[in-house]
Amino acid sequence: MYTALRLQRKLKAELKSGAVRITVVTRDPYMTYQPFLPEAAAGNISPRHVVVPLRRVLHQCHIVIGEADRIDHTKRTATVTTLASPEDGTGAIQLAYDHLVIAPGSISRTLPVPGLADYAIGFKTVEEAIGLRNHVIEQMDIASSTRDPAIRDAALTFVFVGGGYAGVEALAELEDMARYTARYYHNIRPEDLKWILVEASGRILPEVGEDMGRYAIRELRARNIDVRLQTRLDSCENRVAVLSDGARFPTRTVVWTAGVKPAPILAACDLPLNERGRLKCTAELRVAGTEHAWAAGDAAAVPDVTSAEKGKECAPNAQHAVRQAKVLAENVAASVRGGELKEYRHKYAGSVASLGLHKGVAHVYGRKLKGYPAWFMHRAYHLSRVPTFNRKARVLAEWTLAGLFKREIVSLGSLEHPRAEFEIAAGGGPPAKGPAPQEN
């Protein structure tokens, strides 16, 4: 989205004359600003303000809602399955191009853990974030209503696997939300809820440094969150989380945030990949050894020209991806016009992470912050980075209102089954349940 947005501006004259056409192939008609997913899950931000509608901001681009199945760069064609493909029976379409920009991001990296596919939920999309929020509140409703202590204990046990940004921020925000929500239940106290963070390595939040990582662990444990380092999830079959340290936790909630892997389209193209499955790129964001193929973000292995370490690559994170997109657009425009390309150059500034309302950690330009200052920096930074003035204003307004009024504690889990009520009324009987983490 950032690349296409900048190309709109750089190639305004060519677009107007019809000499250039920009086509964006995307599975979703919006771009998700992922750093705001934990706040959306906690109810601090409306889900619709975490996403940016592509048709509104990319008004000079041709938007194709679908998924690229294969790319043949030697023939300059992409095979795309659109939403209409199953309906009209014509199959995938072939899109021809002159320049190719590959920026599909990444997908969740799963392991062959028994029961994982049946019971776990990820945390990469706005749908998963809102589904998880609804699910947590529904589990509190179940625990409040049941007379079976085993069901109650399982409903109030929440296991998060992965101690990176996604896992820690999602757990911290949801624990904050659930602790607040518990005051409205007559038979649930905050200490009845059991939160467990499972991390295979010996630290969490490695991006903020060891000191801030240790502080984050102390902060989480002070909130009765069970942080287990050097521990793996061995199984979650039959709604029982079995850990490598021998612990067993009956639970109805397993959230998997243990890393990502390259999008499948990279393996279905004829472009060079490195040993980790990412596209080999030059500092100008060209795919190495090719002409007119470009990449950025998680999909691209871009050399870090600011590092003294030989062979070091830019980290696959939003800080680099957004900046790479702008340079990529300028280089594509320069290539179209026969201009000079420039290298992508950005020295890593540091990282910030939220640990719930008014709590956070940060390590920025060598300075370490914690507590309220880090939390404020986290919000200020991401507010400055979320695209479009419209979204900035809406997010700021929601934060302001959240500071003046009480939290929303409504679960809208029925949104996941919008026809359920009508099916019952029409005599179809109760609808089938969805996956365990999202059931009503």
UniProtKB/TrEMBL annotation:
One Gene Ontology molecular-function label: oxidoreductase activity
Residue ranges annotated for the FAD/NAD(P)-binding domain, each copy included: 15-325
Entries under Pfam families matching the protein: Pyr_redox_2
Superkingdom field: Bacteria
Signal peptide feature range: none
EC number: 1.6.5.-
Keyword set, alphabetical order: FAD, Flavoprotein, NAD, Oxidoreductase
Family stated for the protein in its record: Belongs to the NADH dehydrogenase family.
Name this polypeptide is given: NAD(P)/FAD-dependent oxidoreductase
Organism: Streptomyces mauvecolor
